Task: inverse folding
């Protein structure tokens, strides 16, 4: 009598529910048709988890596949491309646009994503922390949720320090975002449907994911829970008419 081999455990995606970088990885895994289990971590606890895995950095997302660990949204997309379900369209950009696509994705990650985060948190976490905590506690285990509640004041202060948050920083990030919107609008000029090349790619996932906190798309798994603080809300209303923000909303509607 032969026994069936044990079922392979699903990959585990460790993430913050609120993180736009984590959304980038999650979207790519979904798009690649990869089954995985979601593991939410509270801020602060993610550092302990990353250290336990022997990783040099503590940032999320982290994808754990058995004994293999992949850290960072771009690296997770690379992994998803290699392990996606057969027949699923690639997220690689057109062959002759690879160099420019890599450059655009790096700028999105290093500039747009960073300043969306600092701009939002400089008002939300500094002045209206009660609007942020419910998203961080959503879907946490009971133990993590309790510990986050007890240590929220300390965690909030650490986040403010490490992300360099404050009113002046928020103003600076807002100015940088305006320049990034101009750049994105130029890439989408003449009604182009995609940022690079002639097909939907990882660059489009990156841009739409990192803009998602500003547009709160209905198809986003978490952002319907977010209550934007007053100044951010007013800016987002004004920005909603910009081509790149309208494009991001359409990308979510069609491809998420």
Result:
């Amino acid at each position: 009598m032969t026994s069936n081999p044990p079922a392979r455990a699903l990959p585990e995606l460790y993430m913050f529910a609120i993180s736009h970088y984590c959304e980038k990885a999650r979207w790519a895994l979904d798009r690649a048709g990869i089954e995985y289990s979601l593991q939410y971590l509270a801020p602060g606890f993610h550092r302990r988890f990353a250290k336990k895995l022997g990783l040099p950095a503590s940032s999320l997302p982290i994808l754990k596949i058995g004994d293999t660990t992949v850290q960072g949204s771009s690296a997770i997309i690379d992994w998803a491309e290699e392990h996606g379900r057969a027949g699923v369209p690639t997220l690689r950009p057109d062959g002759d646009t690879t160099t420019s696509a890599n450059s655009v994705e790096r700028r999105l990650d290093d500039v747009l994503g960073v300043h969306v985060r600092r701009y939002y948190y400089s008002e939300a976490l500094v002045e209206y922390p009660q609007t942020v905590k419910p998203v961080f506690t959503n879907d946490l285990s009971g133990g993590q949720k309790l510990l986050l509640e007890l240590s929220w004041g300390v965690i909030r202060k650490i986040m403010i320090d490490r992300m360099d948050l404050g009113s002046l920083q928020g103003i600076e990030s807002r100015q940088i975002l305006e320049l990034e919107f101009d750049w994105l609008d130029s890439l989408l000029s003449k009604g182009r449907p995609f940022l690079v090349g002639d097909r939907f790619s990882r660059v489009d996932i990156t841009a739409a994911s990192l803009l998602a906190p500003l547009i709160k798309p209905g198809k986003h798994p978490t952002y319907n829970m977010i209550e934007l603080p007053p100044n951010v809300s007013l800016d987002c209303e004004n920005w909603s008419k910009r081509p790149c923000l309208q494009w991001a909303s359409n990308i979510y509607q069609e491809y998420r």
Observations:
- The two ends are 46 Å apart (CA to CA).
